[in-house]
């Protein structure tokens, strides 16, 4: 959902085939002109690989050398496939198929199943976790929620590596893979899971690939039919191909070699799913006459960010490291990376939120800022800190934009208004296209001021606001465009999953950030045990953790901050150490090699005044040590009994809503729900008692203290918000 580039949102379609090549650098142009035979593009982060790929396809189509229907471009995510379709459409090559491996295989499977097998294709299982739970129960194995997720992932890995249940224990041992449970036990669950699928006539996503492979191997007539349609293949992110996907690609190709692959071994971060860079690294051995092009001109990041990225990889080891690409920034100089050490995790989150707020105040859009962490469990403390700082945010991984109910409803309303034209009284006073869209969407809950709160109502408003901004951009790019033109644009974007930008700081794991970029990136929690993660034991696992940090660094265009905390909770023992990957890179940590040397960047120690007791924070109900941010705010375990005054809590919520409306801010900018719960549980009677509650602070105490204490005392809090 974050804009991938700063280019014009609605560029003009190039008038000629040669015009498609305009603006490409020499290496990108070489890719675009290599239309036949095997082609291998080694593309570093930010070097314009998608640009080179899409211009290659578009040039081939526009010049008449490639037929649109004969090209199949495959990648690994719906978002990436949608972006590729959108770019091809803008280049005048809209008829090309750009899909994920699974999507392309599923279409073929649905079409050929009646001919190859007979009857209807079994129902596709959207989520396999419940079936895995049923299989485990029948094996009399008890799995908690986390174990169930891990075993499910292990079954997926076994299938994409083409490992059958009986062979699973031996394959795991040979691969030195750290299985989440006893391999023999997982093998039994895996076998019963497959049996349950057959009994219930369902297939899973891995079966889509396996069954397609089986049909193409057994039915040469069907394989020939597919090969007669698709003559040219393009594979993006080739370093992420699994053995099963490679087998399917080989069957699609047959004896031909019109294949173009693009990848970067230094961005291989999904080996736990079966991905391997071996296919990329072995490409020239399999195709001795292949054209090989290296893209190393980095258009995304400043020289300071690129210097850090190169230094990080200069310390790498292993086969992927031997093929690393040394990036060369094409941008003007920017600020040095900032390294910050904090006393504890909540302080790190608060310091990060404060820096984010400062960047927004300095003019960096919230949608161009990201906070990236190693595991999703780290997000809570940053959600809380950003909410306390009044900063809007979005969690990466929400449902697709065009599948949201409010977006579908808005599309129906806009389509109806477009059909009615001048007969719709709603549009009588609307002078231009954006005004027409605002008028229509006002009936669906949009208005010029965002609603208070951070829940479903706010999410709905953000979706509609994104459509309004898209209409404004569309009208600027296409003067004279009508509502019908906009509806057609939305339909094409929905088909391509090319979503508009939703404003708000992005919170995401490093894995989820792959393929995205922002003006400012905060890499947080960079400690030993977190990055590299504790369970990374082997040399190759450690190197994949290094590559994960490299991916995080190369997401940043201009501003990059790297931080870590010495303890998990306030008052805890400062036993943590910065990630080993930062050695030789951060100032004062020594030097490892000429590329890494120079101590570029500034080192700081975060200073946040926190009103918390010295020593461990204990639950006031059971006495247990608290570690989670929400629990520390309440001073009790989440599952310990609450003595909250429910009536007081509701009065505080009503007061907060009124304050938010007056201030024109989301409700969580006044106080978060957790802070209101803490107030309602502890019922403070004085400024001192209120000020020690986490989430209040000096500024909010001055601004809201009188009202809150009055409500706690049973009086009406009607003073209103003071001028800040």
List keywords for this structure.
724 residues, alpha/beta, seven-stranded parallel beta sheet, six-stranded parallel beta sheet, 28 helices, 17 strands, 11% strand, globular, disordered N terminus, disordered C terminus
Order the strands across the largest sheet as they lie in space.
13-14-12-15-16-11-17
Shape descriptor: globular
Rg over alpha carbons:
28 Å
Strand tally, please?
17
Share of helix, binned: 40-55%
Main sheet overview = 7 strands, parallel
The unreliable regions are 1-7, 592-599, 608-615, 718-724
Number of helices: 28
* Beta-strand percentage range: 5-15%
Q: Which structural category fits the helices and strands?
A: alpha/beta
Distance between the termini: 34 Å
What is the residue-averaged pLDDT? 83
Describe this structure in words.
The protein has 724 residues and is α/β, with parallel strands linked by helices. Helix content is 45%, strand content 11%. The chain has 28 helices and 17 strands. The chain has a 7-stranded parallel sheet with strand order 13-14-12-15-16-11-17, sandwiched between helices. A 6-stranded parallel sheet has the order 3-2-6-7-1-8, sandwiched between helices. β15, α23 and β16 form a beta-alpha-beta unit. The chain is globular and about 80 Å long. The model is unreliable at 1-7, 592-599, 608-615 and 718-724 (pLDDT under 50).
